[in-house]
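$ fold --in a.seq
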Amino acid sequence: MIVIAAVLIGAIWGYRKAARAGGNGFDKAQYAAVHAIALGALGVIVTILIDRAI
């Protein structure tokens, strides 16, 4: 659940960041993808840490 939420938040965050910078559609898609991957990886790490702590 954490990973899915992190991916969605990352995609929205990246899209908004590119839109504020005045990027075109490809820029928005790339920023959304990169941020989604980065926050998704962070979400996996957090999930593993929580699982090991319990």
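$ fold --in b.seq
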Amino acid sequence: MSIYEVFMPALSSTMTEGKIVSWEKSPGDKVEKGETVVVVESDKADMDVESFYEGYLAHIIVQAGETAPVGAAIALLAETEAEIETAKSQAQGAGAAKQETTATAAPTKTADTAASEKPALATHNGSNHRSGRVVASPRARKLAKELKVDLSNISGSGPYGRIVAEDVQAVIGKTSQPPASAAPITPAPVVTAVATTPAVAAVPGQVVPLNTLQSAVARNMVASLSVPVIHVGYTITTDALDKLYKQIKSKGVTMTALLAKAVAVTLQKHPLINANYSDQGIVYPASINVAVAVAMDDGGLITPVLQNADQLDIYSLSRTWKSLVERARVKKLQPEEYSTGTFTLSNLGMFGVDRFDAILPPGQGSILAIGASRPQVVATADGMFGIKQQMQVNMTSDHRIIYGAHAAAFLQDLAKLIETNPQSLTM
């Protein structure tokens, strides 16, 4: 018999603290294995945190609406109903502020020290095997069952070692994407369908606290200041791209998908632009994942990721992007859907912005800022004047590994693709 501390989970690599949105269980309630106990607001989304074992919610330390650092105790769970009162007594004796339990007649163990006997909630994401239990997304488990693949032999590539569907497909040599009509992949922990919180109305003279997402963005921006960057701009003629867009727009293709695809294809020729700096050297990712910045209605910024954008056809890419944006707006993205970008696009062209400098995201080597496409008077090859649609792009890169010549060569090839062969993006 044991009493366990439930810790604030690390739901993303950048999360330092979380806010309790709601407790789905009340003190004294029975908790089943795999059942949602608490909804936590991370820096990017609201997520259900599920239990990996059976027990009873004995005492809540951090109430709904309050925040706690990652790794801090937020509740006590008793293995048996008889231990509920013991857990309450320990909580009162030790004090919630200490975030620890005191040994009593019934031995108390933290989720870490007791892990060899019974795992606690899905709070610590390290290996993809927790106390003998393979940690994998529901989609990965379903796929493994269908294909008769042993998950225990797979090394997960998802956040913190979680096995995702792509890992299962890689084992059997499959690279095909799930059908567009398939239900959205929902890895654990499951993201709740909590609606986006309305923006707080500004009142003159009032200080409005940052929400969790805004705080995370602020931390990332400050971290970016420590990186020496270089800005390289380029003017791209978009007449051919605009013509293609008009032809396939009715099939659900978006301009964002076209630009992301063009960038991804060009990155194939310039792996350094897709890389990032580390103290050990230059990290070359195994895939090309294009993140696209999206402003949230309640403040803050999120970057849904088009994973393997160079391998997806333009129609699948557009469907994927539509789904990502819809779920981002209601905070339903999974961690791997916003934290795995290797290159970022930031497009303010829809606001009529000509050009701007984007701030380099932590952990990436480059970000491309895209301005509006406008009709411009230009000199033609035969010495005459003509009108062409042109847009200005400006790339911010980590100057520790990417130099001006590297950035210029990438932008030159990107412009060549968009100006002379955009039709290849549909192949």
